[in-house]
Amino acid sequence: MPSAPRPQPPRATAGREAGREAVEHLASALSEAGLPPLPARVWAALLSDSDGRMTAVELTEALQVSAAGVSGAVKYLVQVGWVRREREPGGRKDVYVAMDDVWHSLLLRSDQVYGPIIRALDEGVTAAPDAQARERLAESREFLVFVGEEMAGMARRWEARKRERAPRHTEGGRRSR
Q: Is residue 173 part of a domain?
């Protein structure tokens, strides 16, 4: 006869529940910022995990969602460069890993985001029917150029700040996030 599962001590259960709430709060904030809801939840779970690595089964259990949902969310996150897929040596299960310094990477790719918009605004300025429309389009373009320049500067300052910090390490010598 199988033994009944051991009840968790109250502190562990409360800590786990607080962790789940924090993951859901982060996922909600990311979703409000434009990330699709399930990829936001998967990203938040990976980011909040102690080593930033989880299998599909672990994600399914932690988030209480279907395996198909996790698969689609992970595919999205891999495509945008926030997660990488690994396979443990000799293993058959994929492990999903939160990429280090995603926010910095996003800043560095701002030209990929703003470049096409700026080019389209250039075309709009040329094709605008009147001076008022040209001015609105030109100001929008100039703002995005400014934002891109500022983001590049922020990325440089972040790199300098990281170099100034003392390195943090976890067990096994892996750099913490």
A: no
